[in-house]
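Holo prediction — protoporphyrin IX containing FE.
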Amino acid sequence: MSGPSSYVPNNGVMRWLDARLPLPRLLYDSFVAFPVPRNLSYAYTFGGILALFLAIQILTGVVLAMHYAANSGIAFQSVESIVRDVNWGWLLRYMHANGASFFFIAVYLHIFRGLYYGSYKAPREIMWILGVVIFLLMMATAFMGYVLPWGQMSFWGATVITGFFTAFPGIGGPIQTLLLGGFAVDNATLNRFFSLHYLLPFMIAGVVILHIWALHVVGQTNPTGVEIKSSKDTVPFTPHATIKDGFAMVVFLVFFAYFVFYMPNYMGHPDNYIPANPLQTPAHIVPEWYFLPFYAMLRAITFNIGPIDSKLGGVLVMFGSIIILFFLPWLDTSRVRSTAYRPIYKIFFWVFAANAVVLGWLGSRPAEGIYPLLSLVGTIYYFAHFLIVLPVLGLVETPKKLPNSITEAVLAKRGATRGLPAGAAASPETKG
Ligand code: HEM
């Protein structure tokens, strides 16, 4: 897909540089001449939006770190002082805090796009696996970042999550002590988390480079799921994809700005404006919204399973719900990539998406009454989707007829909107 380079340096300086470090050539081939399918929809713009948000998080984070004090005695006040005293500090903080939420909105849409269009299927397995690694790193980064303001939810969230490790017999306790830097969440924990919270985004950036490198080797999918067959099926990345990505970024940034400027604390928890108090447990300890489906699965296991007690069971189910994503390319047995051509799977896809949203809601409810049972049903369905629906349906479903090429699909669609028969629209004479 990356193919031979078409870059021609247009002046002496570029010729000189190209012979020594062909960086402009790399950028030109990757972001100007790179052929992308001509039918990419807006669903394909979230990768670019994610790259933008990674940059926003790193830039605002580095400046916040100049004013933040990673000491449990003054961390809370230092964040308040950033908002009140530091020039533009309020903007930095609210961009960073809401940026994390918008980063997760974009990553969930990006992942669900991948699930819908079968982006994880051969030859894009490595792209997908790198994506799951990024997702795990994002979760670790967000979790540690939430501890830094040292509010009540920071403290108690950290206590609950690091407590998971004790579920593992033998090694669990020592791992927890190592992570905390002691036997409870304290100043040493805050220092560790700050250090790691600063480090991990750069690791994410490294994995993103591999992710995009792999993309340039295998090329992008498209809504039909049919691979590129000729140059007629593609358009150059610039201007086509750059304009589309740019427009999508602006729209996404408008929503982001609305939150930053008009409701900056909407996605936060009020308890995090109370300084951490190890002697007072909040009534309900809830994680940030983007962790809620996983939190629901953790709490769904309220019973022992043979030798595995309920706590370990919950932890294994929660980690398993992400680990299973690594195996997705091999669990889906369908030869057809795009859900658009799989009428039965399409229904299951939307049921899966609805189940994920319901699990999120259940994660925000207290673990009492009917909620643990509903969470268990949702958890079973989550796993059944990967372990039963995907492998079995791929073998038994009869997909719709695929177009012979991307171009044929585009022209047929164009013809349909003009009231032409599909055959006529797809013929070369009716082009344009
Ligand atoms: C910081 C996070 C991420 C960044 C910056 C990023 C970036 C990108 C970009 C620029 C693309 C090409 C444009 C597009 O298709 O949207 C892409 C495609 C893709 N990404 Fe990501 N990504 C991230 C996270 C993830 C995650 C978490 C997953 C999966 C778990 C994932 C899986 C994929 C796959 C499979 C493709 C190929 C899509 C296709 O051609 O159908 N990415 N990514």
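READOUT: Strands lie at 35-37, 234-236.
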